[in-house]
Every structure is written in C-alpha cells, then in structure tokens.
Amino acid sequence: MSTEPRAQAGRLSKLAAAYVIARRDFVAILFSRSFIFFLLGPVFMAGVASFSGGLGEQMRVAARQPHLGVALPAGEVDALLAAQGPLSAQLGDAVPPVVVLRRLAPGESFAARPALTQGRRDSIAAVLTGTLAHPVLTGTKQQLDEWRGPVGLVVAAAVHGVPGPLPEMALQNTASSAASEHKDQLLTAQLSQTLLFLLTMLLAGMVLSNLVEEKGNKVIEILAAAIPMDAVFFGKLFAMLGVSFVGIAVWGAVGGLFLAMTGGGLGALPVPAVGWPMLIGLGIVYFAMAYLLLGSVFLAIGSLAATVREVQTLSMPATMMQLGVFFLASYAMTQPGSPAETFAVVFPFSSPFAMLARAAQQPDLGQHILAIGWQALCVLVMVRLGSQLFRRRVMKSGPAGTRKRRWFRRAWA
Amino acid sequence: MRMDIGDARVAGNASGRLAIEARGLVKRFDGFTAVDGVDLSVPEGAIYGILGPNGAGKTTTLRMLLGIIEPDAGYRRILGADRPHDVSRAIGYLPEERGLYPAMKATDAIAFIGALRGLPQKEGRRRGRELLEAHGLGYAADRQIRQLSKGMAQQVQILGTLVHRPRLVVLDEPFSGLDALNQGKLETVIRGLAEEGTTVIFSTHVIAHAERLCDEVAIIAGGKVPFAGPVDVARDRIPPQVRLETCASDGPWRAGLPQDARREGRYWNFTLPDSGIEPLLRTLIEGDAGILSLSIERAGLHDAFVAIAGEAAARALEVGKPEESAK
Description:
heterodimer, A: alpha/beta, Rossmann fold, 2 domains, B: alpha/beta, six-stranded mixed β-sheet, four-stranded antiparallel β-sheet, 35% helix
C-alpha cells in the first residue's frame, strides 16, 4: 500500500461526482429484478391505456361534438342559423351545431374540401355550400349518411320558415374530414400521454425505492461525506433516466420486431400532426422533462422519510398529484385553446403531457421550443430545490429527527 | 507497515501543522444542543481519539468536521480548507453506521468508495484486490457483500476508506462490530497509517483503544470537550497512586501516611504526596514499617476520564448506554 501515490487534495467536480453515482446506480438497476419488472411495464400499461383510452373517448365525444361548416350567400346564412336554433332545441344532438365558414358575396365560390381538412380547431365534420335552393353537403360517407336528413331539415326550415319538404341535396363524398382526422389524432395524443404518464410514474417509483434502499443500507453517509449531496441527487436522477432509455430501446426493438413479423407498423396508427419522427423525438424530450420534475419531488420526499413506511405514506400525495395532473392534461387535450388547456400547458408538472398531446394534434413546432425551454427552467429550479431539501434533511440526526418521526407516525396513523 | 507506536508519535508531532482545527463548533437539533462549543486541534500525522460515551456528540462532531452537516456556530479547517468537501479526495471516512451495497462485489465496493474520492475505478479495483490479499481477505474479492459476515464486510469498508491513500482518515467507532483479533489488526493498521504520516482521528467509547493508540485525545461529554490534548497530560490530571505493602500493621509510621490512605488487605493505597516519595520513605524506614513492596502507578486514561468527564459519563462509557440515560 505504501508504494501507491498519496491522494491529492481537492475534490471531484459535481459532474464527475454525479457520474460516479449515476454509473453505480445505472449498473445496479440494470442488473436488478426491478428492471425486469420495468421491462414488463408495457404489459401493465396496455391494460391501463385501454381503460383510460375508453374513458378519454367518452370525454372526447362529450367535449368535441362535430360541427357543420356553412358557406352560403350572406342572407341565407342568417336564415339557416335562424332555423337551426329552434330545431336544435327540439331535436337535441340530432341537429348538428353550425359554424359559419364564410358569408359569400354574390358570385363568390367556396372550396369545401380544403375547409374539411383545415378546420381542425372547430372540428368541422361536413360543409354545406351552394345555396339553400340547391344545397351541397360535403363530408365523409359516414357523416353524409348521418347528417343528410338533419341538415336537409334545417335547410327546409330555412327556406320555408317551418319544416317543409326536404330539398334536393347534392352530396360530395370525401375520404376524410377535419373531424375524423382530429379524432384520429386525439387517439394518438391519448396514447402518447398515457404512455408518458405510466413511464414517468414507474420511474419515479423506482428512483424512490432506490433512495430508500440507500438509506436502509446506510451508504448515504459515505456518499454525503465524499461528494456534495447535489451530485448524489443528480446522479440518481440521471441514472434512472439512463435506465429508462435502455428500457425504451428494448421496447422499441421488441415492438419493431413484432410489427415486422406481423406486417404492421406506425402507418396503421393515426398520424400525429407533427409526424411520427418528430412526435417520437418530442416524446423523448417531454418524457425526460416529466421524469426529472417528478423524480426531483420523489427524491426530496425520500430524503424526508426515515423508513420505507414513511416513504410510502409521504409519496402518496405526490402520486395523487401526478394522477390529477394526468387527468388535467387528458381533459385539456379535448379543449384546445381553453383556459384549462392553457393552464395544463403552463403548469410545469402537466406541461410535458399537454404539450405532447398538442404535438399529436397541432403541427406548429415553435410552441414546443418555448415549452421545452420553460420546462427545462422548471426542471432546474425543481432539481435545485429538491437537492437542497435532500441535502438538509437526508443526514439530519439527533432528537429532532426522532421527534419528527414520531410526529409522522401520529399524523399518518 | 511498522508497529512501533513510538515512531508514529514522533512522526505525528514532527510537522507542527494541524490537520484539523475546530473552534467553538455548535450543533443544535430543534432546541437540543448536541455539540456545544467544541474546540479541536489535531496535529498532522497524529493518532487522535475522541473519547466519550454514546450520545456525547462524537458522531455529530465528526460529521461537522467532514461537512456532512453544517455547524450552527464556530468554524473548522480541514487540511487547510474551510470547506471539507474541497479536500475530500485527501480524506477517508468510515461512518459509525457501516454501509455497503449488498449486491456489490468486495473489490467493486472498495473501488466505488475510492471513486467517490477521485480514484479511477480500474485503479480502485486493482488496489482493492491487493488490499484484500494483504489483509487475508483475497478469497472474498469476488464475493458479494451480502455473502460476507458482518465483520468481513466491515473490514472491506475500512479498506475502502484507505484505498485512495488519504492524508486524513476519520473513523467513527471503528472497533465496534469487530472481534478481538480484528480489533488488534485494525490497531496495527492505524499505527501503520500514522507511521506513513497519515493523520488518523477516530471516535471510541472504549478507553483501552484510545490509551493504546492515541497521541492526543479529546474527552467529550454532554456535547462539550472538557479536555483536549496529549494523553499524558490527561493522565497527569490525576496524581500517581502509591501501593504500599508493609510487615508491620501499625506503628508510628502510620502518622506519616497521607490522609487519603486506605487499607485494602495487606496493601495501603494513597495518592502520591506533592512532596514526593522520599520524605514518605524516610518516615516509613524510621518508623520500622518494614516495607515489603512499594509501587507508584501512574493514573490510567480511565481514571483521567472519570476525573475530567465525571462519574456519570464514565458509567455511561462502561455500559455503552447513552450519556443522558446514564445520568
């Protein structure tokens, strides 16, 4: 031993120290049983996703009723609106709500098909053009079959003042409409969001277990004596992130293999507004942000607790909060532009979910740059706050700690 | 690794510089003062003991010295740095609550502890294997920690504490959990470290370890340090004890014995008078006491501890219970 050179004074940089922690945790988790369960996660996710997908579909139907777009001569639009109101009151949802796309000047024409594909925001399912005397209804075959009667009724009422004989209505069949495209993209958004949520929860739970294990086997004091606690905090967070990327790579490979064998592919799924490659890229970034935000909260919780039981008790509110955040984001997804959706986009914990849903529904990429910047800022703040709390609490000893533990036991008994 | 404690002591005092300097360290936990104005001066290369019962504030003091927790008042300077983490690569620390990852192999555990102090992982593994071999644990190098006995795991952790060749080694109750044989081995290791110029500071509630190993001690009780300095100075706080055996059981010579003299069987025990032994000898001879044996025993560290820290702290030290309950 005496032949070895003496240690030099100085310290590891925070980055180097975090790397030592991350490397240990990464290897340890990768070869642990919990990683096997992590890899099996998608099996459980599939069950939950199908359940929440059904729930979301119900919400979607309620929240986003398809609309009839109208582009008629100016005077006829008013007549149609005047007729639609009373009929809607009498017949309820059978009569589609109307969105005025254009009040046409004499001689002006209107292209119905582009309006169907561009009118995502208003969920246009079919477009009424021509004149009230010679109406033309454009939409998917399914939509035309569903609406030709009710729309004819409204047109007749607009022409005659009271429900009268149905007019001759020309039908133009299209392959898809804004509403059907929107519906498909909602499904993509919903799946992405659910996947993101479940993955984040799974990981945050694992990082918490990891910390509890560390407290249990008393290694934490060795770490605290050697390197700054911030580095321990960062190392643990990023180790788990690395583990999750390995998991994602495994799932991607297995999924790709499965799709190749079954002849399926992403083409079978609804195409997101930003396209698949961009959605996957954004999904990874948003996943990292969501995980780092939640992980820092869970690590801070872990530092507050002395026993596994306390950790479980304390993490419950955080889990409930995250569940609430997920439901908020799910709901907000069906209400684009609403205050709820804006809140979901801005609130750090729901922002990654809400923005991923937007990526599936809206092609604008600029908003993602802003959102990622905002989330990154929040991640820095949260990780910093979490690590400070972690540093203050994790090595706290003496009678105060005992008193607090007693308090926890009483409070949660 | 030589075992001559005398050499180590000389090395320890040679530089005259302080490895650790602490002044007025205070730590409170929600109103309870765990450490109350502790001053320490640990010379470079010395073996320094912090001696006190459980709950006296030893661990809290060490944690503050290492920067694991921040003091509420006072300052400390470790290897010339105000912030202990700034010199963490030159420090080795064995906490009281031993901790290793159960799934790690022994060599990896040593390398990991070294890596935390800046030793490259590969080099740490190599040194770890060598250290295990040197300490008779080579057969356990590739075993997981969970497969080792508690004592063996503790030895692995001690080797991890030393693998990066620190200049300052801090050991919190290093002997607890070790059997007598391994306690002896650890004493040898500590002496060897001091011989190489490494400063060793350890806490203990076992006086014998401190007495055998330390150049200097700090006696801590109730969060305060009533004494800090060389072991000899602590022992000199108690005057030497005289043990006298005489032929005659009584006679005029008895008047010459000090007032605190008490008879225990054939022996008289009393404190050596300030005037020294010669006047007493003269009285005994002139009074025909018939001296069969006479020994002057210097006070042990235990007696010094009792005199300095008080009976309650000494009792707590002996039974290993926290100081408060002993009181």
